[in-house]
Amino acid sequence: MLDKPTILHIDINSYFATMMQQEVPSLRGKPVGIVKDIGRSCVIAASKEAKKLGVKTGCRAKDAKKLAPNIIFIPAQFDFCLSATKKLKAIFENISPDVHIYSLDEAFVDVTHCQQYLYHQSPLQLAKVIQKQIKDQLGEWVTCNIGISHNRLLAKMGSEISPPDTVFEINDDNKDAILSTVEFKDVCGVGYRLQEKLKVLGITHPYQLRFYSLPDLEPYFGPFWVEELHRIAYGEEPHVLRLLDRTLDHMKSVGRSITGYRVHDNEDEIKRILFNLMEEVTYKVRRMGLAGRYVWIKLYGSEGRQRWRAHRTLPYYIRHTTEMFQIAYHELYGAWQRDFKVIKFAVRLGMLEPLNETPQTWFPDWHRQEKIYQAMDKISDKYGLFTLRSGRLLNRDIIRPEVTGFFGDKTYQLGR
Amino acid sequence: MFTKLHDRIQVIGIFTFKGFIPKKFQWKDKVYLINQVTLVSDVKDGGLRQRWYSVEVRGNVYRLLYNRDHDEWWLEEVYVG
Q: Looking at residue B55, what is its pLDDT?
């Protein structure tokens, strides 16, 4: 009889950069910075060698160059990484039915219920086998950290604090020692702002929180975070990880954002970019048989504080690009003061429900549009999205779908 | 940096229990012997299923694309290492 769960957290080291080094052997052992595309200035992933020189994910290319003068910048190959993630998922699902792909390069594998049937009953042995299988399937250069513990917080913590290509177990014997030495940046569920607030009080490690009473902390963090921090102090799962237990019948929202190469103030360009993003959003919504009634738009300027957002909750459901564009562009964006140039665009359609569970409109125009979109979707399904496109997107570069490390649309991507 | 090419090629390989492994390809009348396959990726764009083989030949990496629907091989990109 197993008294505690056994959870493995697998984290591929420097995923985008490692996959590129796997593909191009001459890059192995060299500092590599992955950028989104040629000419882009943000490093979205750094190789192990670049990290050793101080290059961090999210830093600017020119800063990375100062830290690592020999760094090689290469555009990401998102499709290849998604293909590799699907292979990882297959490896994990061969071990246990309880697999949760957490992001493009991270997964939780719960072996509690199947451990007794596995050939390698020791989790440490099993972790070594997983590391070997990953090398066999993805390539010899691909390494991963594996954290083992009785819950997801500690398993993830284990993989975060262990050196590359190692296995680390957090159990009752070492848990308190780990919680008193681990930094909050390695604790899932504690973001940068919360870390800074804690630092002001002199709290830098989870264990320290045990010495504060809940009423002491509540004025600083509020009732929700006090409970969360208290759980983390004792190595229990925070809300963000407990949410993984929810079984979602379908996605609740679909969004898309893009950061431009430069700032935009040309109305035609802005209109085209927003339409392009909404085409992708509504296509995905229709592919999943859904419709939504929450339209959201957010624009960012190049200065940190330049942000504008608006949303509308509709009394009816929509799923056509023209419907979403009418609300998001003509009504919401149309009311914006335009007080900064835009560098980042984000749109979202939320409050999604299955189309057959939503009230159907009686307007014949909507049904005509629906037939047109269904016909277009059939062509997209066969030949790819944007094979057939609106006149608004003709003779321009198309913003195509792509995956991100966060893997927000994993339900859509892995469900296909 | 990868350079885009998009040229038709011919490929010879072997089938193993792991699937097809390209061994050499002919590009513009020249035959390239593949030293190793460094990555195999399956990409889907709509209903189009594409299999990409990244292969290393004398230190350079070539991205070969096999279009399953049309049974065609393309040399899409090269990285000169």
A: 98
Quick check: helix, strand or coil at residue A109? Answer: strand
- Residue A404 pLDDT > 80, yes or no? no
What the block records as the tokens of A402 is 């792509």
Q: Which of residues 38-77 of B touch A (CB under 8 A)?
A: 38-39, 41-48, 52, 54, 56, 59, 61
The predicted structure's pLDDT at residue A1 = 46
Residue B15 burial by CB count (10 A; 0-12/13-18/19+): exposed, middle or buried? exposed
pTM for the predicted model, two decimal places? 0.85
The mean of the pLDDT values for chain A is 91
The pLDDT of residue A415 is above 70: no
CA dist., res. A61 & res. A55, Å (int): 9
Active site residues of A: 106
Please, which pLDDT band fits residue A118 given cuts at 50, 70 and 90?
confident
Q: Which residue of B has its CA nearest to A28?
A: B81
Under 8 Å CB-to-CB from A416, ≥6 apart: which residues? B44
pLDDT at A361: 83
Q: Which residue, among A289, A345, A298, has the nearest Cα to A317 in the 3D structure?
A: A289
Q: ipTM > 0.85?
A: yes
Interface of A with B in 379-408 (CB under 8 A): 380-385, 387
Query: What tokens appear for A320 in the block?
Result: 């056509």
Give pLDDT, residue A349: 97
Q: Specify the long-range contacts of residues A309-316, CB closer than 8 Å, at least 24 apart.
A: A310/A335, A310/A336, A313/A351, A316/A359, A316/A361
pLDDT tens digits along A202-258: 999 999 999 988 888 899 999 999 999 999 999 999 888 888 888 778 889 999 999
* CA–CA min distance B55, chain A (Å): 8
Q: Which chain A residue lies closest to B54 (C-alpha atoms)? A: A23
List of chain A residues whose C-beta atoms are within 8 Å of the C-beta of residue B56: 25
CB A275 within 8 A of CB A329: yes
- Cβ neighbours, 10 Å, residue A326: 14
Residue A85 near residue A105 (C-beta atoms within 8 A): yes
Contact B81 A83 (CB under 8 A): no
Compare all CA atoms of chain A with the CA of B59 and give the residue at the minimum distance.
A26
Indicate yes or no: CB of A83 within 8 angstroms of CB of B47: no
Question: Dihedrals φ, ψ of A345, to 5°?
Answer: -120, 140
Supply the DSSP string of A269-316, one letter for each residue. HHHHHHHHHHHHHHHHHHHTTEEEEEEEEEEE-SSTT-EEEEEEEEEE
